Amino acid sequence: MLTYVIRRVLIMIPTMLAISVLTFIIIQLPPGDYLTTYIAELQAQGEGANLDKIEFLRAEYGLDKPLIEQYGVWLLGMLQGDMGYSFEYNLPVNEVVEDRLLLTFIVSFSTIIFTWIVSFPIGVYSATHQYSISDHGLTFLGFLGLATPNFLLALVLLYVANVTFGTSIGGLMDPEYLGQPWSGGKLLSVLEHLWVPVVVIGTSNTAGMIRRLRANLLDELQKQYVTTGRAKGLPPGRLLMKYPLRMALNPFISDIGNLLPQVISGAAIVSVVLSLPTTGPMLLDALRTQDMYLAGSFLMFMAFLTVVGVFVSDLALAALDPRIRLSGGATR
Amino acid sequence: MTDRPTDTPGDPGPGNSPDKLKHWSSDAPFDPYTTETLTAEQERFYMASQWQMMWWKLKRHHVAVVAGVFLLIIYGTILVSEFLAPYNLHARDVDHIYAPPQAVQLFHEGELRAPFVYGFKYELDMENLKRVYVRDETKIHTIRWFCLGDSYKFWGMVTMRFHVFCPGNGGTLFLFGTDRLGRDMLSRIIYGARISLTVGLIGISISFILGLLLGGISGYYGGVPDTLIQRFIEIIRSFPELPLWMALSAALPVTWSPIVIYFGITIILGLIDWTGLARAVRSKLLALREEDFATAAVLMGARPRRVIGRHLIPSFMSHLIASATLSIPSMILGETALSFLGLGLRPPITSWGVLLNESQNINAVALYPWLMLPVVPVILVVLAFNFLGDGLRDAADPYK
Is residue B150 part of a domain? Predict the structure, then answer.
């Protein structure tokens, strides 16, 4: 087990390196840099750009250096926990994103938990009541959640909550806690606001999860050991819980790797609509203004979250499923 | 099947007691080939091609068939959007800004009439600074059928005025209401289908070709190219889709014309989506290349290109098409999301996402809910693709 963990961690290093190269290429892709955007903006407002100042800024941020060198500086800084400088905010990226990364993590994590809690009973029910009216109904509901664009659902929920409860559910906490250090009150307030994004992001993922669990469980239920168990007089509930369900649970764990990028994607757009203080809205702004280090660090963070998520799910799967062998040749 | 004659009839063999039932046997001459002939029905079944079998199985999946027919119809409409839309895409009616939907009526004062709509009485609510439209039951605008209306350029080429239905003379026909410039939502949704639906098709073609090519190389050759491609796929997959789309589409220069942006967006959608297909191709190839028929082809001197293209790919093409069908909706939703955020397509190109961009704020939801109507076709099309894909997948599965 230990050698496996070490090997996996070692593999993650070149992966993260490759991801950082890709991220750097992506944030360099737009023609020009932040300063050209900035100059264009100044000119659009009828102000002349002070060329000396621009040149100074360009040298200051290292934008005049060759790309390789810029990449090297960025990567080295990253390794030391310094994510670069945000032009738009005139602050180090670390200070700008501080809370946002944590909140993104909280939202993603709660969404996955929500997806599990909702899809587990529905999936089991659908599989044990195959082709019943309720099975069809639940499947259809799941598909509907899949097909509805997240952002629209968020808008409608925003409106409904506003009309029926008279509260604004935008944001992740009450305004008075913004910028405050963490406290019990702040935590409560976050919990109060958390359910809307979690439900909205979760709806599109539950459908897939329900279908997978249902399909897996149906496969297992047709196997002979289930018939044997039933013939030997095992009560239906116990029979279901003890064997087939355990086998069918694998997608719950192995899918974290697939679920996590989806959840982060969903969170990105929903948080723009709900104006959540997570990475989504700020990434959008950063991309628009070519605030490259800010955008880059968000992309890196999201990719990092995914890579770690896949790693954790692999470990959990290996620990929970005795059929998975860690040593020995790779099975194809 | 004919029974095999065992003994000459009427000859009680040794040991046959008379109280036993007489053993019956046919006296027809034995012909081994008769057992082999199939009825016309069986012959049709056994000789059917793989695609025919799929078609039969699919036909039994009623939901998938309905979804397929629906998709055919809706894709058919994009050929003749101009005829179906009552108004021109850019026609503005400045007297009817944010007009609510007009319902089609059949009865006026208890009398059956041709389909018509009531006109609007319009006043400004100075207190709330809002336009208020009231139904005016004295104005009756009978819908005209197969009529001449707004002029447009059919497929951007021929100027024409023909519509399937138009507003009554001097009247309006806003079945889905109008937007902030007084443009008819229904017409815009019909035109938007042309863009939104083709985004998925073009995107999936790109991802299909890439997936087939790279997955094929990876699965057939194995070794170093396989490892490289697999690592590359892993890296692409560890980026969350939407932020990656956002970053790439933000990289499209603003100076590009909207139509080039449209192709740029579809290419981006395709460039990121191929990884799943490539994995499916690879795993199928790995399994199939060990099969006897593949070995036979290699032994007979077929080159890799022929083995892959002629023998291996056809045996899992049906499966691939099913999974491609299932990934079209995610592209349509992706385009919608990008355009909604303002990073995707830009006016004057009109897609459902561009239309939804207008309903971005909560005011739209509260005051002009009909601006959200473009989401209805999005949901329907995505659902239909999912049902069709499900049916196709079941039909393509040879073990069911």
Answer: yes
CA dist B254 and B343 (Å) reads 10
B343 and B286 in a common domain: yes
Tell me how far CA of residue B262 lies from CA of B152, B207, B272, B343, in angstroms. 22, 16, 16, 11
Q: Which two tokens stand for residue A318?
A: 């290996």
**Of A302, A276, A125, A137, residue with least CA distance to A198:** A276
Partner B contacted by A223 (CB < 8 A): no
Chain A CA closest to residue B236: A19
Q: End-to-end CA distance of chain A: give it in Å, rounded.
A: 21
Residue given tokens 């969404």 in the structure block: A111
Enter the tokens of residue B220: 């057939």
Give the B-side interface with A, CB within 8 Å: 231, 234-235, 237-244, 246-248, 250-251, 253, 286, 329, 333, 336-337, 340-341, 343, 356, 359-360, 362, 365-366, 372, 375, 378-380, 382-383, 386-387
Please answer yes or no on whether A149 and B378 come within 8 Å at the CB atom: yes
Domain boundaries defined on chain A: 31-82, 93-320
Q: Is ipTM > 0.85 here? A: no
Quickly count: other Cβ atoms within 10 Å of residue B7's Cβ. 11
Domain total of chain B: 2
Cβ atoms of A210 and A145 within 8 Å: the answer is no
Closest alpha carbon within chain B to A169: B362
Q: Which 8-state DSSP code applies to residue A139?
A: H
**Tokens standing for residue A216:** 């897996």
Question: Is the bond preceding residue B348 a cis peptide, omega within 30 degrees?
Answer: yes
Say what angle helices A93-128 and A256-273 make with each other, to 10 degrees. 120
- Each of the 332 residues of chain A gets a pLDDT tens digit; together they read 788 888 888 888 888 888 888 888 888 877 767 777 777 777 777 666 667 777 777 776 667 777 788 888 888 887 877 777 777 777 777 777 777 778 888 888 888 889 888 888 888 888 888 888 888 888 888 888 888 888 888 888 878 877 776 666 566 666 666 666 667 777 777 777 788 888 888 887 888 888 888 888 888 888 888 889 889 988 888 888 888 887 777 777 777 777 777 788 788 888 888 777 777 788 888 887 777 788 888 888 888 888 888 888 888 877 777 666 655 444 43
Q: HSE of B342 in the Cβ direction (CA atoms, 13 Å)?
A: 10
The length of chain B in residues reads 400
The radius of gyration of chain A's CA atoms, rounded to the nearest angstrom, is: 24
Are B254 and B215 contained in the same domain? Answer: yes
In order of B2, B31, B323, the CA distances from B5 in angstroms are 9, 10, 53
For residue B145, the surrounding DSSP H or E stretch is strand B144-154
Query: Residue B279 burial by CB count (10 A; 0-12/13-18/19+): exposed, middle or buried?
Result: buried
Cα–Cα distance, A283 to A304 (Å, whole number): 16
Instruction: Domain of residue B122: give its range.
Output: 102-173
Which residue in A has a C-alpha nearest to residue B356's C-alpha? Answer: A152
Residues listed for chain A: 332
A161 touches chain B (CB under 8 A): no
Measuring CA to CA, which residue among A235, A240, A238 is closest to residue A217?
A: A240
Farthest-apart Cα atoms in chain B, separation: 116
Domain A93-320 has CATH 1.10.3720.10: yes
**Any idea what DSSP says for residue A325?**
-
Q: Does residue A256 belong to the interface with chain B, where contact is any CB pair within 8 Å? A: no
The domain boundary residue, chosen from B140, B173, B206: B173
